[in-house]
């Protein structure tokens, strides 16, 4: 059983319930909660700033505040991997150790100043994370969790074994210098402000990443990486980016810790410490920056208050996690999803003028993504495509053409290989033989996110929305591969990134309105009824600005009225220049919308033509349609 997936699902469900309660409240209540959070933030900043000046706070408690800051920094670094992307990392202290030992070795051996080593320790930890996680990043759930435990333990044991006489073995490294910013940072109070100043910078950057296409991509992967990649998100790239960034921040913490302690040893980087970081993120709330700070506070301050019971510390933490999973699995302070207006206001001022339309956006995308074919020309061609699973042939020498400007329906009995064919077209499966030409280019075997960027968008037979995200955030996924801003642009909000975000936001709102969900943009996707979830999935596919829309049983589960509305939507999209390929079992819908029908059985085409012709074809009648008496 995948324990990590079960745990994440439970936490996500709790987060959805929390958001449902928020949505159920009136606007005044929502505004009041937002104001309360802002007031809490101001109070926290003031408290951290003036805490060392209280008369009852001595150097001991200032040191506790420093370690509270270290654990906050480490919690924030793990929150990127665990909270944002949903990857279980129980070896995170290994990256912390790399930062600390890089600082200690280079400072004591080469006398490089600590402040110069601050970015170097971050780069070293990030580079190490890239080297060790790149080969295993494809692993999921419990498997990746076990590998990360091994990585952390390998780092610790390596430090104990003292390779090349660099790490000092079990005794560690002593005599590390103090950092200097104009004056030496020596006192507990100076280190306290130093670490919290760095935390403020890190939080500022993380908040900006959360509100960018990078942060949204991380959340899409956490929710459903198959759907995310099928809509243009490079899953491997963003997983690695999360590990590298998280490790780099942990490396910064290692640098500060080494300079404060002036010595380090392997016993500071144990698996138990990684488990405490795990507790910090889970206690606070996955993806929640304020929650992570609160979790770090609980882990560091409470043991000091109840020091007489220190030997039972781990038991108390385990009991706290158990209680949290039962009564508040979303965490002490769950992350709140931002509304569309909040997203707009945090990025820039409201965009003036008319919103982008589907037609406008198709002219704004790069030339290589515009449909090169005229009505009736071949847009998608499949030639001798074959795929088997073990001894079962799912698709056997399939040859077909999808013409531009038309709706092509693919019908056939269950198990005919229709969805498998869709997975071949969209890159989820790789064909054993054959070619798949899209706009004249062979896309067979390309990764799904590359095929999506070429202009193929899809929906799924079993709805694969992102339930813990809002409808607007869901649709923004379709715009991901149309964006170009990466880390630098997202961190500094350069003008091109701001304009890009505004364009993507406006167009996503237009797509929601296009399917009748304009009023639901701030609702969680999980709160929608079934029929509207189907509409949301189509809106998300439209946001990709595709040349070919691939729909897998879009009317499944819809009532007659909703099916009629779907038919009207598909015909209107056809008139706007989209080409559509759909799998469908509702023959009435196929009658209403299709220009060409392909009938499939046992991985092969048995007939094709108009729906009227298919109703008269004896092979089709025998294999699928049947007779009225049947």
Describe the model.
The protein is an alpha/beta fold. It has two domains: about 5-335; about 360-370 and about 375-625, Rossmann fold, CATH 3.40.50.300. The protein has 24 helices and 14 strands. The chain has helices spanning about 5-25, 25-50, 60-85, 95-110, 115-135, 140-160, 190-210, 215-230, 235-260, 270-285, 290-305, 315-325, 340-345, 360-365, 420-425, 450-455, 470-475, 485-490, 495-515, 530-540, 560-575, 585-595, 610-615, 620-625; strands at about 175, 180, 185, 265, 380-390, 390-405, 405-410, 435-440, 440, 455-460, 550, 580-585, 595-600, 605-610. The strands form four sheets. The chain has a six-stranded mixed beta sheet with strand order 10-11-12-7-13-14, sandwiched between helices. A four-stranded antiparallel beta sheet has the order 6-5-8-9, covered by helices on one side. It has a two-stranded antiparallel sheet with strand order 1-4. Helix 3 (about 60-85) runs antiparallel to helix 11 (about 290-305).
Which percent range describes the beta-strand content? 5-15%
Q: Return the domain count.
A: 2
Can you count the helices? 24
Contiguous runs where pLDDT drops below 50 for at least 5 residues: 24-30, 349-373
Overall helicity? 55-70%
């Amino acid at each position: 059983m995948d324990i990590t997936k079960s745990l994440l699902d439970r936490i996500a469900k709790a987060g959805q319930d929390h958001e449902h309660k928020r949505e159920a409240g009136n606007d005044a209540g929502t505004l009041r909660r937002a104001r309360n959070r802002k007031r809490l933030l101001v109070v926290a900043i003031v408290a951290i700033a003036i805490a060392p000046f209280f008369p009852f706070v001595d150097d001991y408690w200032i040191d506790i505040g420093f370690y509270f800051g270290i654990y906050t920094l480490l919690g924030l670094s793990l929150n990127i991997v665990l909270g944002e992307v949903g990857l279980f990392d129980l070896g995170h202290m290994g990256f912390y150790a790399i930062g600390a030992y890089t600082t200690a070795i280079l400072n004591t051996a080469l006398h490089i100043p600590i402040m110069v080593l601050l970015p170097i320790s971050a780069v070293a930890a990030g580079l190490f994370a890239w080297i060790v996680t790149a080969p295993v990043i494809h692993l999921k759930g419990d498997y990746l969790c076990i590998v990360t435990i091994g990585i952390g333990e390998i780092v610790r044991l390596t430090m104990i074994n003292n390779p090349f006489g660099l790490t000092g073995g079990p005794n560690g490294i002593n005599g590390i210098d103090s950092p200097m910013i104009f004056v030496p940072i020596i006192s507990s109070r100076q280190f306290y402000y130093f670490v919290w100043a760095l935390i403020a910078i890190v939080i500022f950057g993380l908040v900006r990443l959360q509100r960018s296409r990078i942060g949204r991509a991380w959340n899409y992967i956490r929710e459903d990486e198959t759907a995310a990649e099928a809509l243009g998100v490079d899953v491997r790239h963003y997983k690695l980016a999360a590990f590298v960034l998280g490790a780099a921040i942990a490396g910064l913490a290692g640098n500060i810790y080494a300079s404060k302690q002036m010595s380090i040893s392997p016993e500071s980087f144990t698996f138990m410490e990684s488990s405490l970081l795990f507790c910090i993120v889970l206690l606070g709330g996955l993806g929640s920056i304020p929650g992570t700070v609160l979790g770090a506070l609980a882990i560091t301050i409470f043991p000091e208050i109840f020091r007489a019971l220190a030997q039972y510390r781990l038991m108390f933490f385990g009991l706290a996690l158990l209680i949290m999973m039962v009564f508040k699995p979303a965490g002490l302070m769950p992350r709140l999803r931002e509304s569309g207006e909040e997203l707009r206001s945090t990025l820039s001022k409201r965009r003036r003028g008319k919103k982008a339309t589907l037609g406008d956006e198709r002219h704004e995308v790069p030339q290589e993504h515009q449909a090169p074919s005229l009505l009736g020309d071949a847009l998608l061609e499949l030639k001798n495509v074959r795929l088997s699973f073990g001894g079962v042939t799912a698709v056997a020498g399939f040859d077909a053409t999808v013409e531009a400007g038309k709706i092509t329906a693919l019908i056939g009995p269950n198990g005919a290989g229709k969805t498998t064919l869709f997975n071949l077209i969209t890159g989820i499966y790789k064909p054993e033989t054959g070619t798949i030409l899209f706009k004249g280019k062979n896309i067979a075997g390309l990764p799904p996110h590359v095929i999506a960027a070429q202009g193929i968008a899809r929906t799924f037979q079993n709805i694969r929305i992102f339930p813990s995200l809002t409808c607007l955030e869901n649709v923004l996924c379709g715009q991901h591969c149309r964006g170009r801003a990466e880390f630098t642009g997202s961190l500094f909000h350069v003008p091109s990134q701001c304009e890009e975000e505004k364009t993507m936001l406006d167009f996503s709102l237009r797509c929601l309105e296009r399917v009748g969900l304009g009023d639901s943009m701030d609702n969680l996707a999980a709160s929608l009824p079934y029929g509207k979830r189907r509409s949301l999935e189509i809106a998300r596919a439209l946001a990709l600005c595709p040349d070919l829309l691939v729909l897998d049983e879009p009317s499944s589960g819809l009532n007659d009225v909703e099916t009629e509305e779907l038919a009207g939507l598909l015909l209107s999209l056809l008139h706007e220049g989209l080409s559509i390929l759909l799998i469908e079992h509702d023959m009435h819908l196929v009658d209403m919308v299709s220009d060409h029908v392909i009938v499939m059985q046992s991985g092969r085409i048995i007939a094709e033509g108009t729906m009227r012709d298919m109703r008269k074809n004896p092979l089709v009648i025998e294999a699928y349609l049947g007779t009225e008496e049947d």
